[in-house]
Amino acid sequence: MKTTVQINEFIKNYKIKNILLDNFEKLLKNNSEKQLDIIDKDIAINSKKIEYKKTENNFHSFQNSILRNDTEIGYYTLVFDNDVNLVDEYFVIFN
């Protein structure tokens, strides 16, 4: 298990925060509200709080809350392999 310091270094060294923000913006740009199951695109991710976990495949998962008017409405997650290649992403809206 990685320590908080190791996780923060990983996030900083591999620019995970920037990748999360860029990929989230691309997702919003390239998909309609209907495709994303949202009312409008006036949403954001909380890039100040990135949750980390190691998956059962030993990949690295970084998750942010999706916010509308400071209320959490879902989460956005990117999953990287050990070579820091993006292997999956999740955009989940709570119903």
Q: Can you describe what's shown?
A:
With 95 residues, the chain is of the alpha+beta class. 31% of the residues lie in helices and 35% in strands. The chain is built from 3 helices and 5 strands, in the order αααβββββ. The protein has helices at 4-13, 16-30, 33-36, and strands at 44-45, 51-54, 60-68, 71-80, 86-93. Strands 1, 2, 3, 4 and 5 form a 5-stranded antiparallel β-sheet that branches. The chain is globular, with a radius of gyration of 14 Å.
Question: Secondary structure elements and their pairing?
Answer:
Blueprint: H1 4-13, H2 16-30, H3 33-36, E1 44-45, E2 51-54, E3 60-68, E4 71-80, E5 86-93
Antiparallel strand pairs: 1-3, 2-3, 3-4, 4-5
Query: Which stretches are low in confidence, meaning pLDDT under 50 for 5 or more residues running?
Result: none
Radius of gyration: 14 Å
As a percent range, the share of helical residues equals 25-40%
Distance between the termini: 32 Å
Mean pLDDT: 94
Main beta sheet: strand number and arrangement? 5 strands, antiparallel
Please give the number of β-strands: 5
Give the gist of this structure.
The protein has 95 residues and is an alpha+beta fold.
Notable characteristics:
5-stranded antiparallel sheet, globular, 95 residues, 5 strands, alpha+beta, 31% helix
